[in-house]
Predict the structure.
Amino acid sequence: MFEPSPRVQELKKQIQAFMDEHIYPNEKVFYEQVKQNKWGAPAIQEELKKKAKAQGLWNLFLPESERGAGLSNEEYAHLCELMGRSSIAPEIFNCSAPDTGNMETIERYGNDEQKEQWLKPLLAGEIRSCFSMTEPDVASSDATNIECEIRREGDEYVINGTKWWSSGAMADSCKIAIVMGKTNPDAPKHLQQSMILVPLDTPGVKIVRELLVFGYDHAPHGHAEIEYNNVRVPVSNILLGEGRGFEIAQGRLGPGRIHHCMRAIGQAERALEAMCRRAAERTAFGKPMYRLGSVPESIAKSRCEIDQARLLTLHAARSMDQFGNKVARQQIAMIKAVAPTMLCNVIDRAIQIHGAKGVCQDSFLASAYAKARTLRLADGPDEVHLNSIAKMEMAQYL
Amino acid sequence: MFEPSPRVQELKKQIQAFMDEHIYPNEKVFYEQVKQNKWGAPAIQEELKKKAKAQGLWNLFLPESERGAGLSNEEYAHLCELMGRSSIAPEIFNCSAPDTGNMETIERYGNDEQKEQWLKPLLAGEIRSCFSMTEPDVASSDATNIECEIRREGDEYVINGTKWWSSGAMADSCKIAIVMGKTNPDAPKHLQQSMILVPLDTPGVKIVRELLVFGYDHAPHGHAEIEYNNVRVPVSNILLGEGRGFEIAQGRLGPGRIHHCMRAIGQAERALEAMCRRAAERTAFGKPMYRLGSVPESIAKSRCEIDQARLLTLHAARSMDQFGNKVARQQIAMIKAVAPTMLCNVIDRAIQIHGAKGVCQDSFLASAYAKARTLRLADGPDEVHLNSIAKMEMAQYL
Amino acid sequence: MFEPSPRVQELKKQIQAFMDEHIYPNEKVFYEQVKQNKWGAPAIQEELKKKAKAQGLWNLFLPESERGAGLSNEEYAHLCELMGRSSIAPEIFNCSAPDTGNMETIERYGNDEQKEQWLKPLLAGEIRSCFSMTEPDVASSDATNIECEIRREGDEYVINGTKWWSSGAMADSCKIAIVMGKTNPDAPKHLQQSMILVPLDTPGVKIVRELLVFGYDHAPHGHAEIEYNNVRVPVSNILLGEGRGFEIAQGRLGPGRIHHCMRAIGQAERALEAMCRRAAERTAFGKPMYRLGSVPESIAKSRCEIDQARLLTLHAARSMDQFGNKVARQQIAMIKAVAPTMLCNVIDRAIQIHGAKGVCQDSFLASAYAKARTLRLADGPDEVHLNSIAKMEMAQYL
Amino acid sequence: MFEPSPRVQELKKQIQAFMDEHIYPNEKVFYEQVKQNKWGAPAIQEELKKKAKAQGLWNLFLPESERGAGLSNEEYAHLCELMGRSSIAPEIFNCSAPDTGNMETIERYGNDEQKEQWLKPLLAGEIRSCFSMTEPDVASSDATNIECEIRREGDEYVINGTKWWSSGAMADSCKIAIVMGKTNPDAPKHLQQSMILVPLDTPGVKIVRELLVFGYDHAPHGHAEIEYNNVRVPVSNILLGEGRGFEIAQGRLGPGRIHHCMRAIGQAERALEAMCRRAAERTAFGKPMYRLGSVPESIAKSRCEIDQARLLTLHAARSMDQFGNKVARQQIAMIKAVAPTMLCNVIDRAIQIHGAKGVCQDSFLASAYAKARTLRLADGPDEVHLNSIAKMEMAQYL
């Protein structure tokens, strides 16, 4: 039953209370402020960050590190679901993507200097970061396709390439990028790539434009297309060493997917709640909607799918905690293939039951759908994960 | 095979050529101009309207009227599909929703004065119109729920109510609304409602706000929430007579659905084309995408679904032409239940094959999806149509 | 609307009447007789064959031949749907698979002697035939895999191989097989195979066993596994010539698929009818089933899917008639991918609405499902057809 | 992770070994013997029952009773999955339906005399039992519809009614039925029904016929239609008391569903294994099937669905153990709605990958599908469970 430990139960209660008191009532305020200053940090966010920090609801994500809260992946997963219910919540708890992934990457693969310079302010919530991996010109789901060049010249690396979907990079507070690119095109396929830290104020870094998701700009974070034109950084900015980009990418994946999926489950719970509330309050053809036609089946299927996806994700988290990310690989691929699709389906049903209200700004559903749909592509489309799962499944028979 | 007549084949060729020469190359221009003046008519549109009119590609939609082009529903359907491929095209041919439906309504149910005053400039493309039916506070898919009050006082009707999803009403050129509301709450259920013409500059008409669809504002037309506060119009503005709102709604439905569905099929064809082109040009995991995993099945299923939906829609159009809208009722309900869902599925596959490009502004897919998804709710959610189909199917067994 | 011609309308009426008078009321009788003599021809069948012949409802399938009724593929399709409603009907009209395909094959590709010896008694309904293509040991959907050896020795061909799913071969009346095998393993891939006529009483032909479909034996026709051990036939038994097996297979495909699909549509109509009747007569939870929960949506979706599949199939038939099987290839692949799956879905819904009655011998549904499910594999699994469709769709972009 | 306890792990190993050594290799033997004596107990079964008993792999299902093995629902669930992999296994471990449900019913609701007479030989595997609830003439999924009459006359109850789907009742060894019927048609709806023990050799009990499932007779157990004509049993045969039939039905449901679902998961695992093995050994279009088209996605989706259904079922079992069947009601409804459908989907994919082999007697798939499909109806169709889930979900919002 994945009953959370007493400590986690306590944290759940605290987060739940914080959400009820501070997050939900301020979602509108937040987006009103965003309208005033698209890429700035909304005042309400900064205010609530202080509150969350003061309550110890801060950096709960970082496992196996003294800098984190000492929670396992499974333990944090429960909390992550709660935070995921509101799109403004994760950052307020300093637990938002891609920063958690970036912080974990620097924590695990960075050296002391890198940690001092970048991890510290990130953990303090003073700056934001982005992850520059995907490229517009190649099918980046096959990461060996990535073409950005990281060429060593003396004590510097010179970076050239165009990245897009660098999420968060539009924000004024975003100061640092982790960039993936080829240091050695002649090495074996999985040793060609490296990851490197690039401060966004380095000459040659150019934010070309914002990318919209469906019609949304996702301010105040946004998704940026970035050109890196002869960007020069000291060699010490490399993470872990040349040719180890894939190794880092692998290590980074597991927790990030747990987070994405648990947030998806939180979103799905909220959509199901909205569906039920709407079905309770509307009447059509002489009946309350919750007894009308296939509406009950929509509710029931959503409940079944959500609970299954949650159990699968918690199960994957526990495997990671017990056996490590490598052993849990198939399970991690499974949740990535399952949870975003489940979320799309649940929201889609909720939209249908909301009628036109479900596609406009009067509910969170359309906006949540746009994100959910994107999540089926982010970090590899479903098909890539399904193929990994099949490969691992077949291994025992070949 | 629904082989179009020679005249329609000729028109198809002309429209095809017009699309290739004038529409597709100007889609970007159009939206650039919209950015400059959100609710104004883009210059390129006005320019192309003149061209279309000059070529006789104008008002092709109006069947059984000397004001139209003399095309049957089936004949126009072929053309409508073509126009539907581009979201900017229908208005350029003066064939856009909801104006076609409104024009047809006035043509069929309006008196001479009403035709002179409103149909004439609408057919000339000088003004736009909206249709104010749906209300935010009730499940409007059950039209008996509609609450807007149309109260007679002497020689005037006084209108009070809030409507939303009055599409097109944000446009500066939108001058007239057809409003549905209750003239007689005590009459039998289907005789309570009436439709009335309300010029948008009448005192008491207030455009409250624009409604976004998945983040999109759908400028230059937009969707408006409109308050009608003690709006007074002469009694001569009523259409057909008090209590005949349902009768008009029924008559209006058939052609409108054919149009929506054929445009949906045009969109789906364009999405399939995009899917194929993308699959042809991208390589991943050592293979062109069109030979990768389930991509071929996505293409094939889309082709099968599109062709079936087209045949069903043409078949419904022919039934309407041959036997009238009443006899074709089940078929009309069927296409409304089938085509928008088909379109959602086809676009969704196209998005998946485009990866992140599919959800942002670099393809038309996300924007088309938002519209397609809305179409599953507009004019009644799928479930309402499915229930009508079932009811008619069951009739022979009860 | 694919309005049938007056002649076809007249034939439809006749067949409809024949079905009502002779077929439906005798389905039970038929299967009772089968129980007495599994592989013999049931007396009722022979009796009704005479009646059908006398009424001219005989061999309606054969297009472009003076031996047939002079109906086009499209014309026959309408009739085929009607016959398909009952599993015992097609043979009574001498229009059952695989005999129609075999007769068409001999008519098109056989020489006069072959026609005299085999086509004549087949057209007279005196004997039955089977088609021996699929092999248990290879993925036969890729026909190049087929391994049966047809080796020339002097004036004879010597055949060695094991075939299964030779449908109809269990029947006592089955006298002739068309066997596909390799005459020249060294030829280019598509010229290796040939088709040859093998009388089933030739020494070396061994009916190994019957194959069950789900638990059904499909008596009185059955599906046989046949071993061909050094079976010797005169060289004159070859069809069309050595190496032309693929050519014949291609030519044979089109009409056979139209027939299969239209019969599938007939079955689906009957399942939908059963669904509606059941929904009309049962009450649960205080409501007639046709107003209960998702039952109306099941009915409506079935109607939508059936009508679409029918239109697609008629459209394919018309294309074949107008442009030939080659041009219509994509459409033929489409109906094969669409109709059997549609049928499975419709029957599955009907089963669900029938409850336990739907899976046992008290309705025709379970038995029909077993056949429908098999049809998704017969003549190539869905996936093979989907891939063909995709290939043809992509051709224009490569 | 639902890690089983050491004791259960040990039992799993034993059962696994028993399956490998005794069950799988004897499946063919078993069904050969059944052919000789349809409704008798196959010798191999009786032999293996002794072996299982000797190893203590016997009656593992009965929780909270000194007669059982002392395993919780969750603990037994792990074992049940293993047994479920083979259709002949459950009875060999004396853990087959409906006997487990019947034994649990008598254990919980029977008096000492009833236990002595019927529970003892059932637990010893000496006799079999059936459950007579469903009736052909009413929608029995709404149990208030059940019409069988149980009328008291002096010291006897007189039973009149027709039941069908009394599974197991065709077997010679089946000696006792639990019959549900109305003792008091005038009582409040949920107090009208009672359950009563009826020895099958009582005068008036007539096995009318066997019911086939798809084409299968399910020998040696079968499904019977039974007429109860003026069947007289002593009043002491009533279970728990008059009017308590619903109460017993409720209590009986939970464990039975866990068992059904875990066996379904075992079947699904075996189908997935078959799918993978087939994909590993076949080649088509120049590729091993496991790398062909959508085959990998079929494998991956199956893995995802199986794991989710298992977690959901174990979770439901744990809830039952911790909080009782009443609290776990929604979860119990969820697994019944999820697992059988999941199993149908997984087997269907496996069939598709097996081609024609998948629908005939050469694999277990078609037979397993028939059972899985029936399981979507047994004990209430999916729709009934979905509606219960929705009702419980909505409760918090009404």
Remarks:
- Chain C touches chain A through four residues (CB under 8 Å).
